[in-house]
Specification:
Layout (H helix, E strand, L loop, with lengths): L7 H9 L10 H7 L5 E4 L18 E4 L6 H4 L3 H17 L7 H12 L4 H8 L11 H18 L1 E2 L2 E2 L10 E4 L4 E4 H4 L4 E5 L7 E4 L10 E4 L4 H11 L3 E3 L1 H4 L8 H11 L12 E4 L33 E3 L6 H24 L2 H8 L7 H12 L3 E2 L11 H8 L19
Parallel strand pairs: 7-10, 7-11, 11-12
Antiparallel strand pairs: 1-2, 3-4, 4-13, 5-6, 5-10, 8-9
Helix pairs in contact: 4-5, 13-14
Length: 420
């Protein structure tokens, strides 16, 4: 059975992959993981509560043969360990008996000088641990980083995203095994997408977490816990995931100028993270249980937000599943209805039909709708300018001027017909 398609960029990425070098086949590592012992990861329990008070069963504990480390181990300072102890921990965690090489020793010393914790060191080395020549591992890491930086630099030219840039891999991914956010060039493996609608600001909190190196405050629902939905993602089978609040630089961080530069490319290509692997959808807020009483028709609903439209995938599952199958079926029916609408729009290849999908969607700013439309239609795109003042007339002007078939917007060689 051929895979259904939702928009032309999805097909480009499915056929050609990301512009950045990647490894979509994880079997090399998995064959080594089978020799490891069970690793239990238990949810943190607040005083006075029990494990049963966690409403999502998949968020209570994880046990498996994969080399997952507890947060307490990830938080261990590499400086307190030293090179030799770091090497012992890496071998122990990954079930190997490697001897340290001058190149690896030099690399570990570099990580110690950068004050990386063990989770970060582990996240940087695990993806290549089984198939990299440890005699040249430092050069290999430096080369991968330089290649990725050059690709991203060339992706934006004169404020426009190039065609190669439109297939850009996410800049960062969440390594669930190490519980650290790592650059794409480190992981080079396709992540699962985590889709959610942001709750109102009054119902959110900002947390500083070593998961992203405390580089920016992470906005999450006030009753959510990052450790819990890490456990849920592990139980669902993910190794890497893309979550906007962790992987897309947020406001209030250490370097606002850097955020503006990154967003030029990262915001217009957000949807790329939801193309190649499964998408986990939290319909009641990030990490929160899907319970009766959530309002699927509110302006904050997942089904009403503009940005979640590009996160729609036919390879999806419910996040925050409490086991209420009646409610789950209701949500599935709503999702399938949206999926059918997006598929029908894609097959029509007409801009008006995409606009019809957006007309009932809500967003913080009207410019978000323009950005969402661009993701689906553009054969090249304008880089995101966070400081751009948005003319409220721009969206209706766009609608009136672009009521033309998709073939007139995208060059004919770029229009990809759906598979039978």
């Amino acid at each position: 059975m051929s895979k259904r398609w939702l928009h032309w960029r999805q097909i480009l990425i499915q056929e050609d992959g990301y512009t950045n070098p990647s490894r979509r086949d994880n079997t090399t590592s998995l064959q080594y993981y089978s020799n490891l012992s069970n690793v239990p990861i238990n949810a943190p329990i607040e005083d006075g509560l029990s494990i049963e008070d966690i409403k999502v069963p998949n968020q209570r504990a994880y046990t498996g043969l994969k080399p997952v480390i507890p947060s307490s181990v990830a938080d261990t300072s590499s400086a307190s360990l030293g090179v030799d102890e770091l090497m012992k921990m890496l071998n122990s965690t990954l079930g190997t008996k490697y001897d340290i090489t001058p190149s690896l020793s030099s690399l570990l010393k570099l990580y110690i000088s950068k004050e990386y914790d063990f989770g970060t060191v582990y996240g940087y080395l695990r993806p290549i641990w089984f198939d990299c020549d440890l005699n040249v591992i430092q050069d290999s890491r430096c080369s991968s980083e330089a290649t990725d930086l050059e690709i991203r630099k060339k992706a934006v030219v004169d404020g426009q995203i190039t065609k190669e840039g439109l297939r850009m891999a996410p800049r960062r991914v969440w390594d669930l095994f190490s519980n650290r956010v790592v650059p794409w060039w480190v992981a080079r493996r396709t992540p699962w997408g985590i889709s959610h609608a942001w709750l109102d600001k009054s119902r959110r909190k900002n947390v500083l977490t070593p998961i992203n190196g405390c580089q920016w405050p992470v906005p999450i629902p006030e009753d959510a816990n990052l450790d819990l939905f890490r456990i849920e993602m592990l139980n669902l089978g993910a190794e890497y995931a893309w979550l906007d609040v962790l992987c897309l630089r947020q406001e209030g961080g250490q370097n606002e100028d850097l955020r503006a530069r990154e967003w030029m490319l990262d915001v217009p290509t957000i949807g790329n993270a939801y193309v190649l692997e499964k998408v986990v959808c939290y319909f009641n807020g990030l990490g929160r249980p899907l319970e009766r009483g959530f309002d699927s028709d509110s302006d904050r609903s997942w089904f009403k937000r503009t940005w979640t439209l590009q996160e729609t995938s036919d390879n999806w599952t419910i996040g925050g599943d409490t086991g209420d199958e009646i409610l789950n079926e209701e949500v599935r029916a709503s999702f399938v209805s949206q999926l059918v609408s997006v598929e029908g729009t894609a097959s029509s290849l007409h801009v008006v039909h995409y606009l019809s999908l957006l007309q009932d969607r809500t967003s913080e700013k009207d410019v978000d709708k323009v950005a969402a439309l661009t993701y689906f239609l553009a054969s090249d795109g304008t880089a995101h300018q966070h400081t751009m003042k948005h003319d409220p007339l721009y969206l209706p002007l766009t609608i009136s001027q672009r009521s033309t078939p998709l073939q007139k917007i995208i060059p004919s060689e770029q229009v990809i017909q759906p598979r039978p």
